Amino acid sequence: MTDTRYETLNQLGGDTALPASPEAAILERVANPCDAPYLIRFACPEFTSLCPVTGQPDFAHLVIDYAPKDWIVESKSLKLFLGSFRNHGAFHEACTTMIAQRMVKELDPAWLRIGGYWYPRGGIPIDVFFQTGQPPEGLWVPDQGVAPYRGRG
């Protein structure tokens, strides 16, 4: 008998190479185990990508919040997807919104937001935010907990 709560999970439980690019990364998902509204948060305080002009590394603290409908993201596949940006050249805005839009496409959540808190390049920190709309009524949405830049740390 096949358990329909899980799609094929090819990355979990084994050695999986870091995808060569975000486009090559596979976001795997499993059925949402809860029928009440709730929030899932992923924090990635050491996110890296590359500046598309200079090739120098860019660093961010990402906070991804979402309220699932039918699916939740499998966390190892999300980690590999985020790691695939290490050699990806794109501006802060493109990286942040690309992550959000990919999660929306793959999961179709009831609500999603991402905060991309980027460390300074050229003396200016750039924080990028994306949200799909209003959170579901009654959903507890805590503050993302990342202070405005003052030498974060």
Report on the architecture of this protein.
This is NADPH-dependent 7-cyano-7-deazaguanine reductase. It is found in: Cytoplasm. One of its GO terms (molecular function) is preQ1 synthase activity. Pfam families: QueF. Its main location: cytoplasm. With 153 residues, the chain is α+β, with helices and mostly antiparallel strands. The chain has a domain of 103 residues: GTP Cyclohydrolase I, domain 2 (2-Layer Sandwich). It is 16% helix and 27% strand. The protein has 2 helices and 6 strands. The strands form 2 sheets. It has a 4-stranded antiparallel β-sheet, with helices on one face. Strands 1-4 form a two-stranded antiparallel sheet. β2 and β3 form a beta hairpin. It starts with 28 loop residues before the first strand and ends in a 22-residue tail after the last strand. 27% of the residues are buried.
